[in-house]
Amino acid sequence: MARGGQARRLATFPGGPRQRSSVHALALGVGMIRKKRLVNRLATAALLGSIAGCEGEPTGFSDPVSVRRFFASLYAVVPDAGALSGSKAAGTAAAAPAAPLIVNAVLRNGPVPRGTGAPSAVLALESSIITGTPGKLRVGGDAPFSRIAVTVPGTVDYWEITLPGPVLDIQVIATGSSSLPNANFLIDASVGNANGFGGSVQQQVRAVDLAASDLAVLVRWNALADVDLHVTDPKGVEVYFGRTSSPEGGRLDLDSNPACNFDGVNQEVITWPLGRAPTGEYKVSVYYWSDCGVPRTDYSVTLMSRGRTIQVLDGTFTGDGSPTTGVDVARLSFL
Ligand SMILES: [Ca+2]
Prior knowledge:
The protein is mostly beta strands. It has one helix and 22 strands. It has one helix spanning 45-48; strands spanning 9-12, 23-27, 71-78, 101-104, 106-109, 121-125, 129-130, 134-151, 157-176, 185-193, 196-197, 201-205, 207-208, 213-221, 226-232, 238-239, 251-252, 267-273, 280-290, 296-305, 308-318, 326-334. The strands form four sheets. Strands 3, 4, 5, 6, 8, 9, 10, 11 and 12 form a nine-stranded antiparallel β-sheet that branches. The longest helix has 4 residues, at 45-48. It binds calcium ion.
């Protein structure tokens, strides 16, 4: 539980015209739970290259509008046959599964082609869609399907994924455009077979613009392991996979690689929308719920306020992970 040893670093956030609040981040050099070492000052470029989003998306609405205005890219995750046995709720770490097969989507022009007898889709949104970062969807069908089409009503094209074989249900990762509108929108998903696509299903998407968030805490990591982000707000409410939202609007976007059920996102984000973050001190912690069989996981935590990066903190987990393996990486004062 001891702190100390290493010098603390204080980062101050320069105020700007839009800046109502001042933010200070205080890095803690030693972990609360000392099973694993926190190693600062690792190379950060590889981990952080795409956090802010840089897909080269259109910068404003134009006519016609592509679905890429909303989703920069999509892929489906085909898990290994033995990969899905872990149960996070039961607190049991899964044995190291094989890496999933990633099937990338291709952009197709025009409307989604319909076919007679094609299966109808079922859609569940498992996370928010955040500017420039991946979110999770779950797409199912009322019959086996091998094709998936994802679009946004009013756009002129769609993303299509062709699977190597039929499934009844699959996870799809959709990366939000870096120019995502700061408003909710509808996502439209269809599933199909060689004959075309059946009836689509639509669901409201909660869009999160990091530039329109009082606070955003991101962790990214570089291995197929289950890392978890925890942020405790000034009122003592801890937002993490076990409590994904707080009364003040704090929200975890997703639990990536839960119990080694790989999605390949390797990122978790907790945000508070503009005007909602309680003032006071926040504690940022990173846990290594399971190493999932990898020898080493480098992670990088980014603290942001209203789209501006306040501080970046890097570390490494080695050895076995466990639900209690974690480090406090920062304290953040939002005033
Ligand atoms: Ca996780």
